[in-house]
Specification:
463 residues; 24% helix; 5-stranded parallel β-sheet; alpha/beta
Length: 463
């Protein structure tokens, strides 16, 4: 490596929405770059949930710099008001963007380590003057060492889902039961997948948008001619409250609000039973090979045929072990960003504007962006990542005026209260999170019009 550090490329890890947006901004500023994608194609992770519809519309999932880069090719943005599926997003936007970037995007290139050239984690001498060194393993077995002036890690969290266990660890027996467990929303339109769930009893563990989607899909299957007898068991680690099903009509992203209403309908219509306050300790098999979930309180649930675990994601930090990161001890997000997104304090859809300063680390020149920047926190939106990379790239370019002018307005969820508050005893929840009134219990099976979720005030919880 003989080139001055400032003449080296910026390496972007991940060719997903945030990574390709970063590449577009770098291209727009004339900065050399290289995108390294572990999967076989751009948007590899998005393609794995190609059957799932986004709750954000096209107008919110296309980065402005990327659109500018695509314009000369004749590309036009689809209907801004329509919500794409993951497959639509990958094929109609991410792949064309990767095509425009050409050989600046390498697929089948897995980053296995990042460090400072000639300096391990403990060495201080001349550390900041050394380039980053990035080790890459290619799908054909080759390995390579690359050098970079800066590194933007947009590798996401898709490959590291949360476990079924209620303590953040896999439940006893969870690994042994892997043949009947999935950590993704199943594609029930796939002829190879549908028979696993049709007419079967399936446990869905989780309380977010992915769990809502799975419950809605299973309810639709139960209504189909080939789905008679399909039943979902919704496992919730906390109780049912007015915020359990999301913001409903108060959500400023209508499709997101509709997901929660669909999950509530699945329960109300009898296609799903809710089990509350259940933290999975063990997963056992009965005599027929079906799975029995055992709670930390000793409860044993009726056997199920399949388990869908949708308990969120966490960042893979293993290949950054030689880098000095400043991460919050709970969320594994950058320390300056963590208080703004902490679900123990706040779960509304508004996030304070943030950019390169909140995303910086003790190691100058490395940034975690996109979903990975949120660590274990939920409710990340694509538009957040686009604003992050715009600010980060401006900072790398030395344009601090632009980097510091961070503007971000996110649609409200219509839900109050952080996740941590809902785990507390009822007497401690009187504050209701970020605004009054406090969540109220939902009577499952009651008409939708009578539920607190349906009667949520317009404008969400922070309006």
């Amino acid at each position: 490596m003989n080139a001055p550090v400032t003449e080296l490329p910026v390496i972007v890890i991940g060719a997903g929405p945030a990574g390709l947006a970063a590449a577009a901004h770098l291209t727009g500023r004339g900065i050399d770059l290289l995108v390294l994608e572990a999967g076989p194609a751009a948007g590899a992770a998005v393609r794995e949930w190609s059957h799932v519809k986004l709750f954000s519309a096209w107008g919110e999932v296309v980065d402005p710099a990327a659109e500018k880069l695509l314009a000369p090719t004749g590309w036009t943005r689809p209907d801004p008001a329509a919500c794409p599926s993951g497959g639509d997003w990958a094929e109609q936007y991410l792949q064309p963007l990767a095509d425009v970037l050409g050989d600046k995007v390498r697929t089948g290139a897995r980053v296995t380590g990042v460090s400072r050239a000639g300096r391990d984690r403990i060495v201080d001498a001349d550390r900041d003057t050394q380039p980053f060194v990035v080790h890459v393993a290619y799908a054909d077995g080759r390995e390579e060492r690359l050098f970079a002036r800066a590194v933007i890690d947009a590798s996401g969290t898709w490959t590291t889902p949360g476990p079924a266990g209620g303590s953040g660890l896999p439940a006893l027996g969870e690994r042994a039961a892997a043949d009947r467990i999935t950590y993704r929303v199943p594609d029930l339109t796939d002829p190879a997948v549908r028979p696993r769930y049709a007419g079967k009893r399936t446990a869905v563990i989780g309380s977010g948008a992915s769990a809502f989607t799975a419950l809605a899909y299973l309810a639709d299957l139960a209504k189909a001619d080939d789905g008679s007898g399909t039943k979902a068991v919704w496992i919730l680690r906390r109780g049912i409250s007015g915020g359990t099903f999301g913001g409903g009509s108060a959500d400023q992203l209508p499709a997101r609000g509709a997901l929660g209403l669909a999950a509530k309908a699945a329960v109300d219509d009898g296609y799903a039973d809710a089990v509350t306050g259940f933290r999975t300790e063990a997963i056992e098999r009965d005599g027929d090979g079906r799975l029995v979930l055992v709670g930390e309180d000793g409860r044993r649930l009726e056997p199920v045929d399949e388990v869908v675990v949708l308990t969120g994601f966490r960042p893979d930090l293993s290949f950054l072990s030689e880098i000095r990161l400043g991460l919050d001890e709970r969320l594994e997000a950058p320390v300056e960003l963590a208080p703004l997104i902490d679900p123990n304090q706040h779960s509304c859809g508004t996030v304070y504007p943030h950019g390169h300063r909140e995303l910086s680390h003790p190691e100058p020149g490395i940034y975690l962006v996109g979903m990975k920047s949120y660590g274990r926190a939920p409710t990340f939106l694509a538009m957040t990542g686009y604003e992050q990379v715009r600010s980060v790239v401006a900072a790398i370019a030395g344009d601090l005026d632009s980097a510091d002018r961070v503007e971000l307005t996110l649609p409200e969820t219509g839900v109050c209260g952080g996740a941590g508050l809902f785990d507390a005893p009822e007497a401690e929840q009187t504050g209701g999170g970020c605004c009054a009134p406090a969540p109220q219990l939902v009577q499952l099976g009651a008409p939708a019009a009578a539920s607190p979720a349906a009667e949520a005030p317009t404008g969400g919880c922070c309006g």
